[in-house]
Amino acid sequence: MRAPTTATVLAASLLLAATANAQAPQSFRVISPVFGQLVSFAMPSNFSAVFENTKGGHYIREAVLKGETPERWTEMITVTGEKGMTLTSGSSPEKFAGSIAGGFKSACPDSFAARSLGATAFGRFEGFVAVIGCGRVDGGPTRHSETALLVTLKGTTDYYTIQWAERGPESDEPPVNDDRWQARLRALSPIELCAIVAGEAAPYPSCVNKS
After folding, report:
1. What is the pLDDT of residue 211?
2. In which band, very low, low, confident or very high, does the pLDDT at 136 lie, cut at 50, 70 and 90?
3. Could you give the strand order of the β-sheet that contains 112-122, starting from the edge strand earlier in sequence?
4. Domains of the chain: which residue ranges?
5. Separation between Cα atoms, residue 173 and residue 154, nearest integer Å
6. Cβ within 8 Å of residue 89, ≥6 positions away
7. What is the pLDDT of residues 55-90, one digit of tens each?
8. Which residues on neighbouring strands pair with residue 130, listed in sequence order?
9. How far apart are CA 211 and CA 190, in angstroms?
10. How far is CA 83 from CA 17, 87, 159, 164, in A?
11. What's the pLDDT tens digit per position in 98-115?
12. How deeply is 126 buried, as exposed, middle or buried, from its count of CB atoms within 10 A (0-12, 13-18, 19+)?
């Protein structure tokens, strides 16, 4: 069992007006240094970070709905980083997404489903977007389904992912074709990678001003 992080997440949280839908949670601009770059996206304000860890060349940070835990959650937004992965021969955002999807499929070969949303440019950086899921997962408090919006990005030297996962009742097939995944991609936008400027601290004005 992982303990929640006690470290302060290095992020800039700039309140964004929820003009599109007055009922939608307001969002905060989150900017975090992960290996060689700053990772920036919008996170709904009803999420809070509960776990963060760097181990070797692997980074992960998880946020869940307020009041939930890393073990018991219904929605989770995860940021990951893979240091130096752009140096891997033949790597691409699509192949990276495929390897993550393969991990899902190995956990639920009989109820796995995936939907490609295609290659996407995030500023000048290549990316790929997909929805992947398991209809039945035995891990966690009870058997459940788990579906995730998956965004992979190829940075200057490192690869990154932003994932928005949801747990629900077990089913024969996860809801990968639901319109809410496109809506969640819009909710996370703008997604950007920025250069780390020597001596610059949060709120990272060089990245804020980039938008």
Report:
1. 62
2. very high
3. 47-55, 58-65, 75-82, 159-168, 144-154, 125-137, 112-122
4. 14-208
5. 30
6. none
7. 999 999 999 999 999 999 999 999 999 999 999 999
8. 116, 150
9. 8
10. 34, 9, 7, 21
11. 999 999 999 999 999 999
12. middle
Tokens coding 194: 């920025």
Contact 85, 159 (CB under 8 A): yes
Sequence length of the chain is 211
C-beta atoms surrounding 42 within 10 Å: 18
How would you class 155 by CB atoms within 10 Å of its CB: exposed for 0-12, middle for 13-18, buried for 19 or more?
A: buried
CATH of domain 14-208: 3.40.1000.10
Query: What amino acid occupies position 31?
Result: I
Look up residue 33 and give its two tokens: 């240094």
Look up tokens 């969002």; give the residue.
27
Enumerate residues 6+ apart whose C-beta is below 8 A from 164: 75, 76, 77, 148, 149, 184, 188
